[in-house]
Amino acid sequence: MNLGGKPKDEPDVNLTPLIDVVFLLLIFFMVSTTFKKDTEIKVDLPEASAEPIKKNRKVFEIIIDARGRYFVNKKELVSNKIKTMKQVLLKNMGKDSKKPLIIRADYKAPHGSVVMVMDAARQLGIVKLSIATSQPKEEK
Fold this sequence. Notes:
Blueprint: H1 16-32, E1 60-64, E2 70-72, E3 75-76, H2 82-93, E4 101-105, H3 111-123, E5 129-131
Parallel strand pairs: 1-4, 4-5
Antiparallel strand pairs: 1-2, 2-3
C-alpha cells in the first residue's frame, strides 16, 4: 500500500519568455535613445556691419560664453582671475606681442569679462587685439 501518492515533480521555470521580453526592452531603449554631442561652445556673437578681415593662421582666440566663462582651445579655464589670464596669454602667445589676439565674446557675456581679457593683454604689451562679431542678418 502506497499512501504517498504520486511522486512530485520539481517545478519547471521556463526563462525563454523572460529573456525575450528583456531583449525587446533593450532594443526599444537603444532605438528610442538619442545621443547629443555637446562638444562645441555655443557663442552668439554681436552683430557689426564692418567688412570681415582675412583669416590669419597665427592668431590666438579666447572665447567668453554668456555666463562669463573663459575657454582656450575648447577647454574651460579653472580660474577667472587676471593672473590666470596673463599666464594663459604668455603660454600661448609667448614673447610675440604682435601676434593677433581675438576675443570671441557671446552677445550676453558680462562686460567685465571682456574688459579683464583686454586688461591682461594690455599689461603684457599685446598690441593687436580684435573682438569677433557676426554679420547682421538681412531684414525683410
